[in-house]
């Protein structure tokens, strides 16, 4: 299956991965991505459940 991601989504993925790996705080990621901490948490949950494919749909 081919998944296409926008530039915004491509930038989002390494930031979410950094939060999951505890190299970046959720609040810092939220600020960097111009999202709320809750939205970052949702991205993290979806990434953990389904990987990068599902993160592209947010």
Can you characterise this structure?
This protein has 58 residues and is an all-alpha fold. The chain has one domain (7-55). 69% of the residues lie in helices and 0% in strands. It contains four helices and no strands. It has helices spanning 7-20, 26-33, 37-50, 52-55. Helix 1 packs antiparallel against helix 2 and helix 1 crosses helix 3. InterPro entries: Homeodomain-like_sf (IPR009057). This is Homeodomain-like domain-containing protein. Pfam families: HTH_23 (PF13384).
What is this entry, summarized?
By secondary structure, the protein is mostly helical. The protein is built from 4 helices and no strands.
Features:
mainly alpha; 4 helices
Unreliable residue runs: none
The structure class reads mainly alpha
Largest sheet: none
CA-based gyration radius = 11 Å
- Helix proportion of residues, in percent? 55-70%
State the shape: globular
What is the strand content? under 5%
**Count of helical segments?**
4
Distance between the termini: 18 Å
Structural domains: how many: 1
Number of strands: 0
**Averaged pLDDT:** 86
Could you give the order of the helices and strands? HHHH
Protein name: Homeodomain-like domain-containing protein
Pfam families: HTH_23
Write the layout of secondary structure elements.
Layout: H1 7-20, H2 26-33, H3 37-50, H4 52-55
């Amino acid at each position: 299956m081919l998944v296409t991601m926008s530039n915004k989504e491509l930038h989002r993925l390494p930031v979410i991965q950094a939060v999951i790996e505890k190299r970046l705080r959720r609040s810092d990621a939220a600020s960097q991505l111009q999202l709320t901490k809750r939205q970052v948490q949702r991205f993290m949950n979806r990434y953990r459940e389904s990987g990068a494919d599902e993160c592209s749909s947010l």
